[in-house]
Amino acid sequence: MILNNDLYTELGDLGFISAEAYSTAWVALVPDANHMSRPAWPQALAYLRAHQLEDGGWGDPHVYYAHERMLSTLAALYALLTWKEPEDDDRIARGLMALQQYVNHFTDEPNEPIGFEMLLPALLARLAPYNLALPPEIWSEEIQKATTRKMLLIGKLEVDYGQLRTWWFNLEMLTDDRLVQIDERILNNYGSVAGSLAATAAYVRALRLHGRDSARAAAYLEHVLHLGPDGGVGVCWPIEAFELTWMLDGFVRAGFDPCSPTLAPLTKQLHRCWQTSPVGLSWSQAFPLNNVDDTATGYRVLCQAGFEPGHDILTSYWDTTHFLTYYDELTPSVSANVHALTALRYNLSYPMHRQLAIKVTEWLRQQMDQYQQLNDKWHVSPLYVTAHAITAFMGWDDDMARRCIHYILEQQNESGGWGSGYDANLEETSHAVLGLFQAWEGGFLKDDLPLRRAVVYFKKHQRQQPVERLWIGKTLYRPVGVTMGTIKAAKVALAKFESIHSIQTRYHRAPKIPLLNRTMPARLGKNVSTAV
């Protein structure tokens, strides 16, 4: 399998995030500027009615994530209660019943969505006048402590228009009285608040309730509503830098040269994004608040393409034992630190990079749980971060690399695919394939049967499209371009594997296979502690 010259055209539907109930509920809450007694976008309200789950709540129907379903259900209830349509009485009753199930499963989940500790109490406060029979455990002491810790990190919730802050993304947590005190300087060039649909909708709603409006913000909401087919919106838009970075990363992991004719235009575009002030990468230039996850991943691609993105940019995110994704971060991200380690290894001759690589490796060792898996707060699947970790550890900490490989091999199901839930799916299978393909090319995977079984899985499901929302934002979302790019990269990797395997079988000998990351340092030893 080869790539067309125009990769964007081949993958299609780029720049779009799948719709979800939480953000759509906030859009449904916005009143019509000329008729305040009805919603500005009734299609958003129709989306909520059409997407209530069998258990009575709202959230992804394919992935059970209690934190997401709690926030989505509370937001949907708030929207339905606001417009008070008799046809929604049964929906509201069923939603209330579902909340008890969700709150009982909080402790089973290793990570919370973005801003959960701030968004939950804000929603509860907005629902308080309705005197609903909410589960008393919903506002637990543990969540209250997390809220307090978060407030200590971010300080007063006052907007300084000259300094972007991560909490703007969750601006809907403010009361309407606070929101109307904010002027349009908070809007970016697209007319949004930090690229967040919920935050922008809450802002427009508050303005209209107070006799004002924002034509720019309303136009942004109108535009994103028309990107999807069914009246729903995703957590944010646009995500062009994140999409570009992760798509390139997937194909580089599949063995492609980022300077090849197919990828070179995208690599140059990534370099232009990198150089745009502030230097580094965020998930969108519409909200240029850089983070170590996008920055480290882009750094790795640019280094492999022969660019010199600079040494110090990664070290600025260091926090004693690990890297911060953002400076106001409450809990660290495992995958961001995995990507940072991968990036550091391209410049180990730089003393600070070597020192930090040693320290973050030890931190990552401590994050691996008793099941030999890694969990991350940006993705519900441990396969995502564990597969990426193979790249980070191979030739640096071989023991950790083998642990990650073993975990992925253990998770392959009878169909030849992978899935952290009951069934395999295309995205998780693709993450696993890319990790194992690199292990196979690097000589760490001696038995190629798992990859051959993966080939069978993809051939059987070649006409299917991914439907699960596995990425963690405020709730779960699916970045369409990133997901499709990952699946395409996995298919390309398996095609290369099949080609080499065919030659190997034909001549009864194994060809000498070069390491994928040729610019990385040679293997240093079994463990990093003995390698330096």
Q: Based on DSSP secondary structure assignment, what is the total number of beta strands?
A: 4
Domain module count = 3
**Would you tell me the overall average pLDDT?**
90
Could you say which structural class the secondary elements and strand pairing correspond to?
A: mainly alpha
Run of helices and strands: HHHHHHHHHHHHHHEEHHHHHHEEHH
Enumerate the strands of the largest sheet in spatial order, edge to edge or round the barrel: 1-2
Q: What CATH architecture label of the largest domain applies?
A: Alpha/alpha barrel
Report on the structure:
The chain has 22 helices and 4 strands. The protein is mainly alpha-helical and 532 residues long. It folds into 3 domains: 205 residues, Glycosyltransferase (Alpha/alpha barrel), CATH 1.50.10; 129 residues, Glycosyltransferase (Alpha/alpha barrel); 119 residues. Helix 2 packs parallel to helix 9. It starts with 6 loop residues before the first helix and ends with a helix.
Give keywords.
mainly alpha, Glycosyltransferase, 3 domains, two-stranded antiparallel sheet, 22 helices
TL;DR?
This protein has 532 residues and is mainly α.
SSE diagram, text form:
Blueprint: H1 7-11, H2 21-28, H3 42-50, H4 66-83, H5 89-103, H6 116-127, H7 141-154, H8 176-179, H9 197-209, H10 215-225, H11 240-253, H12 264-275, H13 292-304, H14 312-315, E1 318-319, E2 322-323, H15 334-344, H16 351-367, H17 382-393, H18 398-411, H19 426-441, H20 449-460, E3 471-472, E4 476-477, H21 480-507, H22 528-531
Antiparallel strand pairs: 1-2, 3-4
